Amino acid sequence: MTTALRNSVAGGMYRHHAYYSSKNHRGNTTIDSDTSEDLLRDRRSSYSPHGGASVSETAIHRFSEDIPLLGKPAAKKRIYYMDIATADVSLVCLFLSILVVADENISWHLGVGNYQLIVIGFLLSIMSLCLSSVSPMLFVLLEARFGDSILQNYDAILRNKPLASKLGIVWRVVLILMLALPIGLSVAYKTFTGGHSSMKINGLDYIPNTTWIGMWAPPGITSDTGVSAFFNATTAFREATAQDLNGTEPPLPTFPQPYGYNILFLNETSVAALDTIRAEYVTAIQELLAAGEEWSITAPVTGTVASLSSLRTGNRAHFEESFISFCEEGNVGNKTIYANTELYNYWEFSLANGRMQSDQSWQILGLVPTKADCEEMSHYVNLYQVYRQRCWATWSVTRGGFQLVEGSCDETLLPFAQQQVTSWNVLALQNWYMSPLAEMLITFSGDNGRGNQSRWMTPYMATSVATMLWSRIAMQHQEKTMNFNSENFKMSWNIWQTENGTNLTYEEVGIHYPVDQDSQTILYSRPTLRKSPWLYLVFVSQPVLAIFILGFTVLLYSAPLGRGFGLVSILSGIEPRSLSSLDGASLSGELTKSVKLIMRPMHAEEVSTIKYRVVPSSEGNERGGDLARNVVYH
User: Fold this and answer.
1) How many other CB atoms are there within 10 angstroms of residue 356's CB atom?
2) Rg (CA), the chain
3) 25, 57, 318, 530: which could form a disulfide with 195 (CB 3.0–4.6 Å)?
4) Keywords of this protein's UniProt record, alphabetized (predicted)?
5) d(CA 384, CA 375)
6) What is the pLDDT of residues 279-323, one digit of tens each?
7) Which three-class secondary structure state does DSSP give residue 271?
8) Do the strands 276-277 and 211-214 form a parallel or antiparallel pair, or are they unpaired?
9) Residues 573-597: pLDDT tens digits?
């Protein structure tokens, strides 16, 4: 029998060779009728009528001396090292993606040029590749164990073709979802923009200049009188506290409340106009910032604080008597200066303070009836006292903005030397500020606008007084500070002196002063992804899914196919006679009907193998058996 089998195989090989060697005169391969019949006869005679192999496995191995056996026998493992490595790589990418977002230092450095998005996209792509490398094995196992074992399903799963012909609807949906998952995740993580990462920095590493703070005009503001700086400083306050369209006033804010770049609302009766960072320093910061980046600078500063005097609130009768005496004396003397501005609504704005070089730390102002005498005025005016106090401020500097975001002031007054800018100065406030103050306060005159019973009238007056003195003093010294040089810029006006007559420098009097790096905190913020649990869920979805897939793959260990299941394994164990039903699909790869792929493990003493057979899907529900543990299959 062996000799006959060898002769049959040899003859078949000869005829097979003759088939490929026969060519017509045009060079095209031709098949004559005799060769075709011989091939068909060889195909049919090699197998038993019942569909099993007529040649024993022992006989097949005897061909090894004639035909090289290239197949690599193997025993199925519950889990493969490659799968473990895939899971490890996926988990490492998950850890790195979370680290890239959660760690402030890493996310801050990657925030430049959207490198964070690039890195996360790369890591998600690797996790997607890991998932796609383990999912087909589970899918074919599920099809073999619980599905109909349809050949087209196996083919579509292995080739990842959700639009393949005759693919089952369930697998079509699954494959589409598996293709859509990485696309959806790559879109989802980009929706978590709007976050930021911050890092504490040393300002000298970026701008090699000492931080100077003082009574500086903000960037872009120049003024000889201080009026433009006054309006610029109070605009944000006025807009934030204005009435709505229905005439309703906003509630008083939580204290302290910042407005603009230097107004700090301390309480209902006190407002501070804080010294600011030198304009050139702010401009230098803005030039180095990219879009969306920010410097948050926290530093000790001095504030010009205007507060409603306790004389006004504690004993009104005593205050009015003192004011009447003061008013009548001032009208005939040279100690004080009064000025009134007609508002043309039967009300006037009145401002009184010290004349010429004098104590400017007190300001009396109010909205009074037109042509009121001193006694009548005493019912409407208010006394505000102005002091220089130690404060803290936090500014936000962006590429297009400079804003005070937080601040506080203690109640400790600065030494006398640093009070002289308000307590011993020549400001001539009535010459420049009557119209600006009238515009600021006219809404509180009588029954007009908000009326003089509004809770916002006192804060508005305190803001007006503090900003008026701050802006006037800042602009007085603008010409001397435009070309600022910390080495040469030492002495101030000779009107500011110590008790022994020594002139005070601008730093000693507190108009301008340096702040070292140890006394300030600078946080450099960059736009990054938001640190959201939902973002971490986007990261974790693929690795967790891959681990679940590997776990279910282990549970389906006994299914009669392994990690190498594919074209080679099927061709190695296919029953050739069953392939007749596939004729006609050599190029298209498509069949008109669904067919089943039956897998049957064959166990023998010498050789164990897995046989595959293709049958129409209508031929029953035959299923293969289970693989034996630790058995090598050929």
Assistant:
1) 11
2) 45
3) 530
4) Membrane, Transmembrane, Transmembrane helix
5) 19
6) 999 999 999 999 999 999 999 999 999 999 877 666 778 888 888
7) strand
8) antiparallel
9) 888 888 888 888 888 888 888 888 8
Domain ranges of the chain: 2-65, 78-194+529-557, 199-528, 560-634
Which of the residues in the chain have pLDDT under 50? Answer: 1-64, 481-483, 488-489, 491-492, 494
- Start-to-end CA span in the chain (Å): 23
Q: Which amino acid is at 629?
A: R
Q: Which residues partner with 574 through β-bridges?
A: 612
Specify the 3-state DSSP secondary structure of 87: helix
For residue 180, the cross-strand partners are none
Are 526 and 293 a contacting pair, CB within 8 Å?
yes
**Across the chain, how many H-helices and E-strands are there?**
20, 18
pLDDT in tens, 175-213: 999 999 999 999 999 999 989 999 999 999 999 888 899
The mean predicted confidence, pLDDT, of the chain is 83
Scored b (16 or more CB within 10 A) or e, 537-550 reads ebbebbbebbbebb
pLDDT at residue 342 in the model:
93
Q: Which amino acid is at 523?
A: L
Q: Are 415 and 441 within 8 A, CB to CB?
A: no
Whole-angstrom Cα distance, residue 142 to residue 625? 14
Tokens of 360: 């400017």
Q: What predicted TM-score, i.e. pTM, was given to this entire model?
A: 0.75
* Crossing angle for the helix pair 457-476 and 227-240, to the nearest 10 degrees: 150
Query: Using CB atoms within 10 A of its CB, is residue 105 exposed (0-12), middle (13-18) or buried (19+)?
Result: exposed
**436: nearest Cα among 243, 225, 244, 222:** 225
CA distance 200 to 381: 48
**521-528 vs 195-201, strand pairing mode:** antiparallel
Q: How far is CA 213 from the centre of its chain?
A: 32
User: What 3-state DSSP class applies to 130?
Assistant: helix
Sequential DSSP letters for 207-239 = --S-EEEESPPPTT---SSSHHHHHHHHHHHHH
Q: Among all chains, which residue has been given the structure tokens 């690795």?
A: 543
Amino acid at 171: W
What's the confidence (pLDDT) of residue 23? 39
Look up residue 444 and give its two tokens: 């509180």
- Amino acid letter, 7: N
Count the Cβ atoms, other than its own, within 10 Å of residue 555.
Answer: 12
Burial of 45 (0-12, 13-18, 19+ CB in 10 A): exposed
pLDDT of res. 75: 81
